[in-house]
Automatic annotation (TrEMBL):
Residue ranges of every copy of the HTH CENPB-type domain listed in the record: 66-137
Source superkingdom: Eukaryota
PROSITE patterns from the UniProt entry: HTH_CENPB
Organism, as annotated: Elysia crispata
GO molecular function: sequence-specific DNA binding
Record-level GO cellular component terms: nucleus
Xref: InterPro entries: Brinker_DNA-bd (IPR018586), CenT-Element_Derived (IPR050863), Homeodomain-like_sf (IPR009057), HTH_CenpB_DNA-bd_dom (IPR006600), Trp_repressor/repl_initiator (IPR010921)
Protein name: HTH CENPB-type domain-containing protein
Keyword Chaperone recorded: no
Keywords, comma-separated and alphabetical: DNA-binding
Length: 266
């Protein structure tokens, strides 16, 4: 008899069970070239195996392991506590990342004396599978195609090269400046959530639309300029309140921190 490890689907196991009932377990094991101990296990699981084939789902007949099979989790109490923590935060609308969940699980295991627990990617994958959890997005963000952006980049590069040759600009006189918003609160786009949930909400403090503007610039010779931070407001900030390595400019408006012609000249 072969000693190579093999796996068998539900339909095959039921064939072995039928042969064992028609004759005996020893005959079925020899006929199908399986271990007699496996035949005994499958005979004891006959009702569960039959329920899978009667479910009407073709995938169940091809299953190679009953529900609950495989290696058990290290500590079911801690596993359930981590699940309860996730559900509480999601009910409150708080975003839960994979890193945050693994850190919480690590803390709980270490707190209970399980210092060998690593909260690995493998554990995280099995945790999601055990509890029917997946990453869900709160919104969909469309992106422009790569072909459109590549054509625009090439066109702009040809324009800059032509202007430099015509005007004889030095590299230190050519700069690339980009304006990017920095949101006061960034709740994120995805969170861990139970599968099948129709509503995936995120809790926030109500400041997710408030932002400041940061201008990042670099020269063609490789020089990086200090970040230029635009803040809403009229009165300038005291110099001692401004961190070193950046420049701060008040936009003259109490609610807006947009870049415009005046801020560009500044």
């Amino acid at each position: 008899m072969s000693t190579t490890k093999r796996s068998f689907d539900t339909a095959f196991k039921l064939k072995v069970v039928k042969a064992a009932e028609d004759h005996n377990k020893h005959y079925a094991a020899k006929l199908f070239n399986v271990n007699r101990r496996r035949v005994q296990e499958w005979c004891a699981q006959k009702e569960k195996l039959q329920s899978l084939t009667q479910s009407g789902r073709p995938s169940d007949a091809k299953r190679r392991r009953l529900q609950g099979g495989g290696r058990k989790c290290i500590n079911e109490d801690i596993d359930n506590a981590v699940l309860h923590w996730l559900q509480e935060r999601r009910e409150a609308g708080v975003r839960v990342t994979g890193k945050a969940l693994k850190q919480y699980a690590l803390q709980q295991h270490h707190k209970n004396g399980s210092q060998s627990f690593k909260a690995s990617c493998g554990w995280f994958y099995k945790f999601k599978k055990r509890h029917n959890i997946s990453f869900r997005r709160s919104t969909h963000v469309a992106q422009k195609s790569r072909a459109i952006t590549d054509d625009r980049v090439d066109s702009f590069l040809r324009f800059v090269t032509t202007q430099r040759k015509r005007e004889n600009y030095d590299l230190k006189d050519i700069g690339n400046m980009d304006v990017t918003p920095v949101w006061i609160e960034m709740p994120g786009k995805s969170t861990l959530e139970l599968k099948g949930k129709k509503e995936v909400r995120m809790m926030s403090t109500g400041h997710e639309k408030e932002r400041i503007t940061v201008v990042l610039s670099a020269l063609a010779d490789g020089t990086k300029l200090a970040p230029f931070v635009l803040l809403p407001g009229i009165r300038p900030l005291p110099k001692e309140d401004i961190p070193s390595g950046i420049q701060v400019y008040m936009c003259g408006s109490r609610v807006k921190s947009w870049a415009n012609e005046g801020t560009t000249i500044e």
